[in-house]
Amino acid sequence: MDLDVLAERLAAGDRRALARAITLVESSRADHRGQTAELLARLGTLGRQALRIGLSGTPGVGKSTFIEAFGLQLTGLGLRVAVLAVDPSSARSGGSILGDKTRMELLSRDPNAYIRPSPSQTHLGGVARRTRESVSLCEAAGFDVVLVETVGVGQSETVVAEMTDLFILLLAPAGGDELQGVKRGIMEMADIILVNKADGDLKPVATRTAADYAGALRLLRKRPQDPEGFPKVLTVSAVEGDGIGKAWHEMTALAEWRRAHSHWDGRRAAQARRWFEDEVRQALLARLTDDPALRARMETAGQRVAHGDLSPAAAAQDILSHLTT
Amino acid sequence: MDLDVLAERLAAGDRRALARAITLVESSRADHRGQTAELLARLGTLGRQALRIGLSGTPGVGKSTFIEAFGLQLTGLGLRVAVLAVDPSSARSGGSILGDKTRMELLSRDPNAYIRPSPSQTHLGGVARRTRESVSLCEAAGFDVVLVETVGVGQSETVVAEMTDLFILLLAPAGGDELQGVKRGIMEMADIILVNKADGDLKPVATRTAADYAGALRLLRKRPQDPEGFPKVLTVSAVEGDGIGKAWHEMTALAEWRRAHSHWDGRRAAQARRWFEDEVRQALLARLTDDPALRARMETAGQRVAHGDLSPAAAAQDILSHLTT
User: Considering the entire predicted model, what is its pTM?
Assistant: First the structure.
């Protein structure tokens, strides 16, 4: 399929064209990178925007159940929803493709939903780049909401927050001591905190946990991008579907306020600029590993350095002098 | 001074030559990078090794007082001690040059000690590279112990642990709850934990804190590079000088065990290799900001991306195409 046809079908909302385009985006082949840039440039002129929602939740917090309930609620409102994932560990654990589809069984069969697992990459930078571009493709394909989920490990929350308009933290009910488990930096990124499992025996604990987090949030300094009352903490029950509608209401209210108070376009512009700079850096570093001759030279020099035959600085100078020619 | 003279004087232990060489190492000028590589290559053939000790401690823990007491103890034993710092924040706070010398007043006047503040760099990668090379210079100048200190913020402990043979964590007496303040990853890097301020009213608390940390360490899995009983927790009083001799004894015992059980050369070789790879990556990325024409092109493209005239991927492709020619 040539790029014209691909772009046209994707813009018409064709799911197979979207899947194909994302596969192109995930490729690291140089010619594919060029085609990706061209495809994104063409689709960018459509000017379509989705609400980009970042969602972080550690394993066991009920993230898949929440996404399924949340996604079905949105498609029930007539909205089209795409779910992407940022999970640099998926390359190691393997099998996330099957995993993502089976853990959200109803949503994956919904014609108004599109679920794409995390690209297989061993480093976060690569996953981040490809996911960002996939978000753009989903927007061009006319999705109303693009949900980017991540398991809360290391830097992945920051990466997701930097490619989304809203950042949601999904937490489990917990004793007061465990509050400390959420790093301050992550708390500061959250726009809305959802305490899941507010059902059955855990309901009172969930309510108390929500109050504790609300107290902790009040200690953080006020951010310009927040209206009164945000960041907000709510309880939800993904299993029973409780509180999901209210959560969606709060997300749209926050998004609308930010659009109306010019905290939207500026953020997107800053994000786009950072992606560009990041892309240049990543691509530059990729040259060190993509070129077989250079990779071999790095290996040889690395061994000489390890044996003490060559200083790290001298070895680096040698490699770099070959890179200028 | 030409490189031959500089290398010769430095190898003879001349402090002014050392200071001059470190200034060369800290320069980012391309010709200085070349001279640095040549200087390090010449000095590397001397094969001199110091005991490289990494020391991390947050502000308020008494780090300067400890380094002064520890350093004076070592010079009292006839050893020559260099103190370097890794502190990426020093560029912002400013004035660390005066600061370092005044906060370790006696040690800074000791002819067998050499104190060098953290190079002024805004990013940790730059500080790391320059500090590593300064460590090599201090070794070539015949120092017996090179102490690399850092204030425990973010990634700086990892950076210091990767350029040293032993990693020491200096902590303050604390209530049981505060133990959690030390991240697990940092605990796992520590070879020896020193609980400072074991004097006066705080002595019982320090003793209890040490027992708590010892308990926490026993929960971590055994590392191959440790003999029985390590990692170890000790109490010290930098103000009164208590426990400093014992701490030094444990450091040398650990270092000797590692040398005898081949956990020394392998670590140094792996470190050297990582430095080399790191140096290549850093230098490659530096080209983006060092070249004025390229910097201007990045700026223009960045603005177009922010305005939405160009996609991040297309802008990156454009920059990268200029980099190949």
Answer: 0.71
